[in-house]
Design brief:
This protein is an all-alpha fold. It folds into two domains: about 140 residues, no CATH class; about 200 residues, Up-down Bundle (Ferritin). It has twelve helices and no strands. Helix 3 crosses helix 7, helix 3 packs antiparallel against helix 11 and helix 8 runs antiparallel to helix 9. It is rod-shaped, with a radius of gyration of 49 Å.
């Protein structure tokens, strides 16, 4: 009988397990369990690759967070020490406890964020955790970052405070000296008025003023006012040396204060010496204010016109006495005019900008860092970055987890099983079958 294959009639019986080649391929009744497309297989492979990377990175992420938290705690400890005056054991224990609490809080907070935020799928849950992360970041800055900045730039900030104070004292010293010099310039106005009265008295002595030569009543009035002005001029001139000496001493103190701002050594000790020099310089500024003769000239000008001792008219005839009285009236009018001129000049000096009161106030390193934050932006950036750097890692994990979910799609988990996972599942199924067989055999 030949071995040629024969056609089996349609509808004939076939051995069990043999499929009809003409029959259509059976369809999988479960939706989504059909054959995957090449793009889906590529996405699943990419997702598995990202998961492997995350698994390797996760092996040391906790250690990295711990290192960052400990580093922040160390700088926080140094910052706390600058705020505490006492150096005893309890103070050290308190600063150490605070820094440990900060380190633990930073580690726990970022561990929560790194685990939970990337796993969120809904927009509301992500927004809620993002708000929590923002609030926690502000809390970390409030309890740690500014202390870290104090530890990083505290000494430099205190030196900046000393330098700014030196500039303020220099401005006060220069202003006080300028006002005092302006007051000394009034001596020329006083000398001009005194010279005018001296010239008039000489004219009266020769008879060119009242018409009667001699040293009578008019002459005595003129010499009286010339003597008052000469005394005032002498008093003003006597202030030249004290003003110059006070200004020179103030500049010497300023030089020592500038040296203290850049001198090597602990800034706390330099601040004490700086404070002593600041007290001396404040005294010099006050002395220069007192040496200003403008108020003295203003009072002398007022007395020049109001306090006149009129002598008795001593003319030999009625005509001479009448001429003396008329001349004295003219002299008194001239006195009022000259007095008004001196008062105006003194008022101009007194109207100059007053010296601002400068007082040196010692501040701590933490306060100095906050007051002069604009001058220490790099230090502030480093202090904040060491605390908030894990936020970048959180966002990286979020983006990676989103890419993994996008690569997997919405299919069933068995569609993306690896060969190892499939082998493990088959082995587990065989174990269950063997267990069922033994149980049935025991019955």
């Amino acid at each position: 009988m030949p071995d040629t294959p024969t056609e089996m009639p349609q509808g004939a019986l076939r051995p069990a397990g043999q499929a009809d080649p003409a029959a259509p391929a059976p369809q999988d009744p479960r939706p989504g369990m059909g054959m995957t497309s090449p793009s889906e297989r590529l996405g699943a492979r990419h997702a598995r690759e990202l998961e492997q990377h995350l698994g390797w990175l996760d092996s040391f992420t906790g250690v990295a967070l711990g290192v960052l938290a400990v580093a922040s705690g160390i700088y926080t400890y140094l910052g706390v020490r600058t705020l505490l005056d006492d150096t005893g054991a309890w103070t050290t224990f308190a600063a150490l406890s605070y820094s440990i609490a900060v380190s633990v809080g930073i580690f726990v907070f970022w561990s929560y964020m790194m685990r939970l935020l990337p796993a969120m799928r809904s927009a509301s849950s992500r927004i809620g955790l993002l708000c929590s992360m923002a609030l926690g970041s502000l809390a970390i800055i409030a309890m740690s970052s500014w202390l870290n900045a104090a530890a990083l730039a505290g000494a430099a900030a205190v030196e900046q405070h000393l330098a700014v104070t030196v500039q303020d004292y220099q401005a006060s010293l220069e202003r006080a000296h300028a006002n005092a010099i302006a007051g000394q310039s009034l001596g020329r106005d006083v000398a001009r008025v005194r010279q005018s009265f001296g010239d008039l008295s000489e004219q009266e002595a020769t008879g060119d003023l009242s018409g009667f030569a001699g040293r009578g009543a008019v002459f005595r009035v003129l010499t009286q006012k010339a003597a008052e002005l000469a005394a005032l001029e002498t008093q003003i001139g006597a202030q030249d040396a004290p003003v110059a000496a006070a200004f020179a001493e103030g500049n010497a103190i300023l030089s020592r204060m500038r040296a203290l701002t850049v001198e090597a050594g602990p800034v706390e000790q330099r601040s004490v010496r700086f404070s002593e020099e600041a007290v001396r310089l404040a005294g010099i500024v006050a002395q220069l204010r007192q040496l200003n003769v403008a108020p003295l000239v203003a009072r002398a000008a007022q007395d020049l016109a109001e306090s006149v001792v009129l002598p008795e008219l001593d003319g030999g005839s009625d005509l001479a006495r009448s001429s003396q009285a008329s001349t004295i009236d003219s002299v008194l009018l001239l006195l009022r005019q000259r007095a008004e001129t001196l008062r105006g000049a003194a008022a101009e000096v007194e109207a100059l900008p007053a010296t601002e009161e400068t007082i040196y106030t010692p501040i701590s390193a933490a306060d100095a860092v906050i007051r002069y934050a604009g001058n220490f932006v790099p230090s502030w950036a480093g202090a904040i970055a060491i605390d908030l750097l894990p936020a970048v890692l959180v966002f990286i994990v979020m983006v990676t987890q989103a890419a993994i979910r996008a690569g997997r799609g919405e299919g069933m988990s068995e569609e993306t099983m690896t060969v190892a996972e499939l082998r493990a599942a088959l082995a587990a199924a065989r174990l269950l079958q063997d267990a069922d067989a033994h149980r049935d055999a025991g019955r």
